[in-house]
Design goal:
- The protein has 443 residues and is α/β, with parallel strands linked by helices.
- 42% of the residues lie in helices and 15% in strands.
- The chain is built from 15 helices and 16 strands.
- An eight-stranded mixed sheet has the order 4-11-10-9-8-5-6-7, with helices on both faces. Strands 12-13-16-15 form a four-stranded antiparallel sheet.
- The chain binds 4'-deoxy-4'-aminopyridoxal-5'-phosphate.
């Protein structure tokens, strides 16, 4: 397949899979489907050629590598470093039970009604106040509550992008954002990330030449690399965005999870010109199941997005919004965050110590100051996709780094999450991973 772009191959596979002509198996690759199983018993054969009816917007790549990863990750015997989830044993379930009971008791009739598309007004106010100490000056009307920041990304992309528009993204970056931008037909312009975040010097060059319609960045504890953009680069990025009038989406789900070092103000706090659209969520600092996130930004954007949101889902679950409001205004979220900031550094340290012990010489890794991820590189030109079946055989999973790249780069990289696996599983998991790397090296 030399000379053929990976995306082309993936798309071809996806079409064959959508037609039921091939099926994927971890470690064994993709094989031609058994024709006798194309129509399961009891399923009437459909006369409609469904794949031909789907619009280009739905034609996003369904990366077989990630499907493989998720398959391995879901096995009960597997220690998984592949997710982006918080520690479930730290979820404040007892408190939430009490709050939901109180909510239904006191305001059940109104909380089980529809609510404004912009969000439950007390929550908009609470969010504006909660983010104010980091220097962000937003009023309640500048905040839109969304069903997770994933929805926020989709609404922003729908509101601001047309097919063919260019979006400058970090390389690597959050996979869910790549999928959104691809779904609206945007063209992606990769800007490399180093240990100080997005390489803004390179961005300056391409903004002048290519005039992107949007810049998407994760400046703090980036997903997937864990790096944080320096203050100097933040200021240069903002000056550049203001000069060329390019909006900047600042995606910040991890900013409150700093374990070491001095905090750096978010772009939205440093922004003098109203170019930043700030996006965050309770998914990483509380739990993802409520589906509560928010966008804070200039009011005309918030108003337009609210109209769009109304078309998409009318409003965000009011009961969950009430619970998040109560959690914030009663100081419970800050207390919970303190708890997370006590627990997660231990997990991170365990992972780093285990890497040191088992993987020195075969992996290189970063040391993040916060967030959820350690980013690793295989030495000697080995590929993470080849490591996956070896790891699966030994009962460990990781996220292959190439999936986070907007182009074909990053084949030798992997993302390890240290917040989700039980604390005692981290060392044995890394030992298994190192064994898998050694096995791959000897193939
Ligand atoms: N942005 C980033 C950078 C993320 O890591 C995630 C979750 N993995 C999201 C957005 C989506 O989060 P939510 O659950 O709020 O939709």
């Amino acid at each position: 397949v030399l000379g053929v772009n990976r995306t082309t191959v993936v798309n071809a596979y996806r079409e064959l899979a959508a037609d039921g002509l091939i099926v994927g198996h971890v470690g064994r690759g993709t094989i031609v489907a058994d024709p006798s199983r194309l129509h399961e018993p009891g399923t009437p054969a459909s006369g409609i050629p469904w794949p031909q009816l789907f619009t280009p917007a739905t034609d996003v790549m369904n990366d077989p590598l990630l499907q493989d990863t998720m398959l391995v990750s879901s096995r009960p015997d597997v220690i998984t470093f592949a997710t982006g989830m918080p520690a479930p044993e730290l979820y404040p379930i007892a408190t939430m039970r009490q709050l939901l009971d109180e909510a239904l008791h006191q305001a059940g009739q109104s909380l089980l009604q529809y609510c404004p598309a912009e969000g439950y007004p007390p929550l908009r106010e609470a969010l504006a106040s909660w983010i104010a100490p980091s220097g962000m000056r937003f009023g309640p009307d500048d905040v839109l509550v969304v069903a997770g920041s994933q929805q926020g990304l989709y609404l922003l992309a729908r509101a601001l992008l047309e097919p063919g528009d260019i979006v400058a993204v970090e390389s690597p970056t959050y996979l869910g954002a790549l999928q959104v931008f691809r779904a609206v037909g945007a063209r992606l312009l990769p800007i490399p990330v180093d240990q100080h975040g997005m390489r803004v010097g390179l961005l300056e060059d391409v903004v002048a030449r290519r005039r992107p319609k949007l810049i998407y960045t994760l400046p703090t504890f980036q997903n997937p690399t864990g790096t944080t953009m320096s203050r100097d680069r933040r200021e240069r990025l903002l000056a550049l965005a203001a000069r060329y009038q390019v909006p900047v989406i600042e995606d910040d789900p991890y900013g409150a999870l700093r374990y070491a070092g001095e905090s750096i103000p978010p772009l939205a706090a440093l922004d003098q010109h109203g170019v930043v659209l700030y996006l965050s969520t309770v998914s990483k600092i509380l739990f993802p199941g409520f589906r509560i996130g928010w966008i804070a930004g200039p009011r005309p954007v918030i108003e337009r997005l609210a109209i769009l949101k109304q078309i998409v889902d009318l409003d965000t679950n009011p009961l969950a919004q009430w619970a998040v409001w109560a959690f914030i205004t009663r100081g419970l979220l800050d207390a919970h965050l303190e708890r997370l900031r006590r627990h997660y550094p231990e997990r991170l340290e365990r992972m780093l110590a285990a890497l040191e012990r088992y993987a020195t010489g075969v992996l290189e890794w970063t040391r993040p100051a916060g967030g959820f991820y350690v980013w690793c590189r295989l030495t000697d030109g080995l590929r993470a996709r080849d490591l996956l079946p070896e790891a699966a055989r030994r009962g460990v999973a990781f996220a292959p780094g190439e999936s986070f790249h907007p182009d074909d780069a990053g084949t030798g990289t992997l993302r390890l999450n240290f917040t989700f696996p039980p604390v005692t599983a981290i060392e044995p998991g890394i030992a298994r991973l190192a064994e898998a790397v050694q096995a791959l090296r000897s193939i």
